[in-house]
Amino acid sequence: MLRRIIFVLVILGLQGVLGMLIPAFISPPDILLLVALFVATRVPLFWALIIGYSIGLLQDILGVGLLGFHAAGIMAGVFASSFVRRGLSAETSINHATAAFTALIAKWLVFIALNYWTRQGLIGFETILYRFIPEIVITLMVGPLVFAFCNWAFGNSNANDEQLL
Amino acid sequence: MNQRIGLLFGFLLVFSLITTRFAPHAPLALSSAITPLWTVFTTVGLNLRQFLEALILDQDLRKENTALKAKVGELEVKAYSLEQEVQKLEDATKIKRTISPAAFLPAQVIQVNFNALNAEIRIDKGSLNGVKEKMAVATPQGLVGDVMQVDERSAIVRTILDPDFRVGIKVGKLNTVAIAKGVTGRILRAEQYKNPKAKKGDTVWSFNSAGGVFPTIRIGTVSSISETRGDSIGQTLEITPIVDITSLEQVYLLRLP
After folding, report:
1. Mean pLDDT across A42-59
2. Do the interacting molecules here have an ipTM over 0.85?
């Protein structure tokens, strides 16, 4: 239990610290998405979607952004990655990276859709170039560390394809 | 199962569509409950960033400081070089005024040859610069010697301390003339000087004789007077050069009249 409390604090802390530490022109890694993806490997997809949405909602509240914006993005990421994970046989780093990459693409597709829906003009070509691409690269770079940290907090898991769709 | 998940996904997506369009910001009560913790993290991040930026700035300042120190070093060298140039120009003005109003040529001493037999220097000007044999060589302080040998780009100057050097001299304002020659590379000696009025400490001037063509230039001072030995009549004067021949850097060639 203590490990999980530490885990939550460290993850929130990392997301907050990295957001301020990394220069503004570089997008920080989406650690909360990685956590949601990790959760998706441990719980049924139904719950993974709810948890993913909740994590995103938390991110919206913390970031004082559009309520439900990140929530829908992370949920979509979890949902899309579940299809990838279903097609992959083992829990390897490559498979995790592939799932994370898919989730990031799905998240940004939802972002673009919501951007169109809200008519707020939040996402443009420059956002894709300077936020989306760096975020993918940096998130994939820190992915193994976050997954290792998740394993430390929740214990190593075995793939449980029966829990997926 | 699939339908249930699909429904959930659709429901949450629609919920997001509604909230993003119609309730874009989280209720203040909700956000204010969480933000204090978040503020701690963002503040830590901000402080860390400022710390790192300060470190980088410090590094930059150190680099700048090192570069500026190097620049100061360069400027000091330049300033020294300019001081030398100014000194040379002052010397040139002085030598023009005091020794030879005629045109002259400055030259750098590039080699010194002082041994038991010779006291010569080599200068960096030669026949291409108009240097000719027997040209007088001087500094603003006094006579250095005469040009002994010339090639295209350099010349050898026989200094007044060379045993082969000969120069006509006058002591002070006396009209008596004698021939002085270099002795042992440290003094000049004039024998058979026939004027008892000469005394120790008098200034010795060059006089146009002895084969060289010298204007009146200060040579040194009388350091010793003694009676000439043997059959010759007169006194022997020992003359201490006014110019320190051993530490010359720049000399001036006086044009032959």
Report:
1. 89
2. no
